[in-house]
Amino acid sequence: MPDNTTLTTGFSRYLLLERGLSSHTVKGYLVDVGHLLDFAASRGIQVEQITREDIHELLCELHDLGISPRSQARLIAGIRSFFKYLRMERYIDNDPSELIESPKIGRSLPDVLTTEEIDDMIKALPADKPETPRNHAIIETLYGSGLRVSELVGLRLSHISFDDGYMIVEGKGDKQRIVPLSPVAVELIQEYLPIRNAGPIKREGSDILFLNRRGAPLTRVMVFYIIRDLAAAAGIMKKVSPHTLRHSFATHLLEGGANLRAIQEMLGHESIATTEIYLHLDRTRLRTELLTHHPHYRNKPVPSPTGEKTGL
Fold it and tell me: pLDDT: is 278 or 298 the higher one?
């Protein structure tokens, strides 16, 4: 069996030349296969030794980290293509991914926190922890500007204008956009900076805003744990991740009367159709308010949006 670099190089060529997939899709599949190879290496097993149970275990780990059903489905598709390539090249005899089921993907509405729940998370920050100023600034930057977690961990000091209240964010596909920074976030970041600068700073973290205690950039997983643990400390029963704060940002803006195009621009969505899920969310909320509080409809079976009779 060739080494992992040779395998992924051959797999990439197969996807581009034989499958005719776009470079964007190929890049995504290689990332997915990278997760699988890293997982196998961490357990000391070779590619040909990977079993269906190993793939299930990897998917469970990623699910616990908050990966969406859509991302799970793409990861499974990438892994299946990889094992199909390995069989075609006669590197393996059996395909362990054959019976792995993809999750059902629907246009589900994202979980959203209330402003009170976000305040409760902030109140749950321990006063005596050295990382509290950093984590407080992280919450405000995620919720106050709607950043993706990957954008947050890559946020550069040189891309922040404190005087003008904006930052340059590097989003998907290395595309840059200008995003407003709230006065509260500016204040919290400036309070955190002396603490950041007083500690060790590694070369790769010299221009990165949020660093760990060793002076290296935070990872996406670390931010996930910070947000998850704060939500638990605040007694929030919802499944909360950094993306929940992004959803809450967009939803609260829409509820406050913000223009959908402005929300699209701040979120960095290429298509307005992606942003329109928040319209659906807002309409669902308004409908629930009507059916819950209007005396004529309260406690009566009413048609749901799908035509089903329901009662509230």
Answer: 278
